[in-house]
Amino acid sequence: MRVNFTVNGRQQEADDVWEGESLLYVLRERMGLPGSKNACEQGECGSCTVRLDGVPVCSCLVAAGQVEGREVVTVEGLADYAKHREDAHPGGGCASGSCGTTLDAAQRWQAGPADGQSGEAVELSPIQQAFIDAGAVQCGFCTPGLLVAADELLETHPSPSDQDIREALSGNLCRCTGYEKILDAVRLAAARQEEAVR
Ligand code: FES
Ligand code: FES
């Protein structure tokens, strides 16, 4: 079957998708977007987390056919997504990552590093920068899933309690950090976000 969907704000199609193929497989193996990691393929580790119509999901558990006509944001698109949210929906969320784009802006659109292909330097999203600044990345394998989940948390809970953070990230396993630095990173991003709206 052919699947048409949007990835990081761009329309994509995947051909000859078989019924048992996961969204994670399509992203990594067909689209060359290796940011979403494949660790357990059972919905246990969260390393494959992406947003599907704005909701964080384990992409290993989503059949590719289920994403027909829907919007996916991966860690490769996180910086653009956060910027779009900041510009178009200050203080709010956006399910599409692409709404609010004027026709003029759309016509001037050029492929950028958010495609995950060019490797050029790109401005990081606030949560990505906070992970770096707080030293929350060790081997980095769990990081993409954590970033996507944490970014969604900060969108819906701009001032999360520690309990909120723990709950939001409870589906994401990390073997390296002991989680304290990850919690620090989310607290840091939240504090910076609060500072910015003052
Ligand atoms: S690879 Fe999807 S949850 Fe582990
Ligand atoms: S940083 Fe290594 S698994 Fe989390």
Description:
Strands 2-1-5-3-4 form a five-stranded mixed sheet, sandwiched between helices. Strand 1 (3-7) and strand 2 (10-14) form a beta hairpin. It has seven helices and five strands; from the N terminus they run ββαβββαααααα. The protein is globular, with a radius of gyration of 16 Å. The protein has 198 residues and is an alpha+beta fold. The N and C termini lie far apart (50 Å). Mean pLDDT is 88; it is low at 105-109. Helices cover 36% and strands 11% of the residues. The structure holds FE2/S2 (inorganic) cluster (FES) (2 copies). One FE2/S2 (inorganic) cluster binds next to loops.
List key phrases describing it.
single chain; 198 residues; binds FE2/S2 (inorganic) cluster; globular; alpha+beta
The count of helical stretches stands at: 7
Q: Please give the share of residues in helix.
A: 25-40%
Structural class by sheet pairing and helices: alpha+beta
Mean pLDDT: 88
Brief overview, please?
The chain has 198 residues and is of the alpha+beta class. The chain contains seven helices and five strands.
